[in-house]
TrEMBL record:
It comes from Sphingomonas jinjuensis. The lineage of its organism: Bacteria, Pseudomonadati, Pseudomonadota, Alphaproteobacteria, Sphingomonadales. GO terms for molecular function: ATP binding; ATP hydrolysis activity; phosphate transmembrane transporter activity. Keywords: ATP-binding, Nucleotide-binding, Phosphate transport, Transport. The keyword ATP-binding applies. It comes from the Bacteria. InterPro entries: AAA+_ATPase, ABC_transporter-like_ATP-bd, ABC_transporter-like_CS, P-loop_NTPase, PstB-like. This is Phosphate transport system ATP-binding protein. GO terms for cellular component: membrane. GO terms for biological process: phosphate ion transmembrane transport. Residues 6-248 form the ABC transporter domain.
Length: 253
């Protein structure tokens, strides 16, 4: 094996009889940020969701092939899916804080996973996650306020704090900035820089500049296939495939 944190081998995903992902293989290492780009409907979210079995919740979705997390089969019957989703956390396009306090949003995962023995431990975990998510100073005086009272950008950082509170190994982000203004977007991008190295990060984005800014490697998907995967600088300046070139130069997609 390589030093892959996540390894996909010949992965295909079907919705009923329709194939949305076609024979995708890739490795993601622990210290990198990988961007997924490609036209709408090409399967980026579908593939991302295979990595922590979020597709299990989609009634007619079926996954073929193998996903390994540290060499361990994610789809093995013995895999505990709740634990898997703590190890491989997810941040969605639309911030989705629970209708609970800011504190409770962050404490939820650690409490399910028994990470805190005492209230003091939990206070420390919550503060640490909010600090790492760059939100602590803005919320420290109103931890009891509902998470839904925060601005969109703050809610998204709260969701990131919630994901990192359980000390995951991988964070999957599906267009995490698409509902945010440029300032909130810059905060999230800064955050990704700060988190890099601590977690493997996969980010789906339609923003080419964002992919170029935050990622070390970029995967271009089209029509369910992984067309090209390489160093971000190569993908954006010197792609091998014609279809990649067409997409990044805006000729379609
Ligand atoms: N729950 C579902 N049931 C049936 N088909 C689905 C379902 N979810 C996605 N699809 C189909 O699978 C294909 C890939 O969709 P997916 O959402 O993965 O694309 P995407 O690359 O993330 O697109 P976007 O950039 O618009 O978010 C599309 O054709 C879509 O219509
Ligand atoms: Mg999508």
């Amino acid at each position: 094996m390589t030093d892959a944190k996540l390894s996909a081998r010949n992965v295909s995903v079907f919705y009923g009889a329709t194939r949305a992902i076609d024979d995708v293989s890739m490795d993601i290492t622990r210290d990198e940020v990988v961007a997924f780009i490609g036209p709408s409907g090409c399967g980026k979210s579908t593939f991302l969701r295979t990595l922590n079995r979020m597709n299990d919740t989609v009634a007619n979705a079926r996954v073929e092939g193998t996903i390994l997390l540290d060499g361990e089969d994610v789809y093995a019957p013995a895999m505990d899916v709740v634990e898997l989703r703590a190890r491989v956390g997810m941040v969605f396009q639309k911030p989705n804080p629970f209708a609970k306090s800011i504190y409770a949003n962050v404490a939820y995962g650690p409490s399910i996973h028994g990470l805190a023995r005492h209230r003091d431990d939990m206070d420390r975990i919550v503060e640490d996650a909010l600090r790492r998510a760059g939100l602590w100073d803005e919320v420290k005086d109103r931890l009891d306020a509902s998470g839904t009272t925060l601005s969109g950008g703050q809610q998204q950082r709260l969701c990131i704090a919630r994901a990192i509170a359980v000390d995951p190994e991988v964070i999957l982000m599906d267009e995490p900035c698409s509902a945010l203004d440029p300032i909130a977007t810059a905060r999230i991008e800064e955050l990704i820089h700060e988190l890099r190295g601590r977690y493997a990060i996969v980010i789906v984005t339609h923003n080419m500049q964002q992919a170029a800014r935050v990622s070390q490697r970029t995967a271009f998907f089209n029509l369910g296939r992984l067309v090209e995967f390489g160093a971000t600088s190569d993908i954006f300046t010197n792609p091998v495939e014609e279809r990649t070139k067409d997409y990044i130069t805006g000729r379609y997609g």
